């Protein structure tokens, strides 16, 4: 069974640009969560989707948005990039959400210059 | 919201010794507590989890204990091996919140 995949793996952007990250969950998983990982803040929850519905959102500015498609693939978008957005963005999938084993993808390393 | 504190931030142990990592949480409604291991440059992987109706769970050399009254839970690794060297994260969640709140992580180094 293929694991969670994320594309692209690495991104370099400049301040003010926008970026879209993609996450393909394990086949059959309907829940996708997104996390931001930085050395100083650890793993911070961004949002969670289940069957195309956002069920929870973390404490991030409105520049961070996401969506989920009918095939459970998910995207997150960050607009008007700031230097502080540089981080590893991880997605995790599970059958139905928290309480089920969350399987993480390899992450997308975003660098904002 | 939920706040999870994790201690210590770094832990160095001799191979064969035990390692203990402790976490406290703030939301008494939390009922699911997973532990993740993240090796350098790799993705986090679930190593063990415990639910609020259980006080202890073991899986070979790894065990987790939960004290709901005190709102803390701990990870115990016995007979540590070099491959146990990694960053370990605890997390807590209420099933109705649909999110995991993570501790800051513990860097474990096992000395040969």
Written description of the protein model:
The complex is a heterodimer of chains A (113) and B (112). Helix content of chain A is 0%, strand content 53%. Chain A contains no helices and eleven strands. Chain A has strands at 5-7, 10-13, 19-24, 31-38, 42-50, 53-57, 64-68, 74-78, 87-94, 103-104, 108-112. Chain A is an all-beta fold and 113 residues long. The radius of gyration of chain B is 13 Å and the shape is globular. Classes of the chains: A mainly beta (113), B mainly beta (112). The interface between A and B is medium-sized, with 24 and 25 residues.
SSE succession of chain A = EEEEEEEEEEE
Low-pLDDT segments of chain A: none
Low-confidence stretches of chain B: none
Shape of chain B: globular
For the residues shown, what is the average pLDDT of chain B?
95
* Overall mean pLDDT of chain A: 95
Output the structural class of chain B: mainly beta
Q: What is the N-to-C succession of helices and strands of chain B?
A: EEEEEEEEEEE
Largest sheet of chain B: 6 strands, mixed
Tell me the major beta sheet of chain A: 7 strands, mixed
**Helix-strand category of chain A:** mainly beta
Distance between the termini of chain A: 37 Å
- β-strand percent of chain A reads over 45%
> How would you describe the shape of chain A?
globular
Give helix % range of chain A.
under 10%
Please tally the helical runs of chain B, counting DSSP H or I stretches of 4 or more residues.
0
Summarize the structure.
The complex is a heterodimer of chains A (113) and B (112). Chain A contains no helices and eleven strands.
Describe the structure using short key phrases.
heterodimer; A: 113 residues; mainly beta; seven-stranded mixed beta sheet; four-stranded antiparallel beta sheet; globular; B: 112 residues; six-stranded mixed beta sheet; five-stranded antiparallel beta sheet; 54% strand
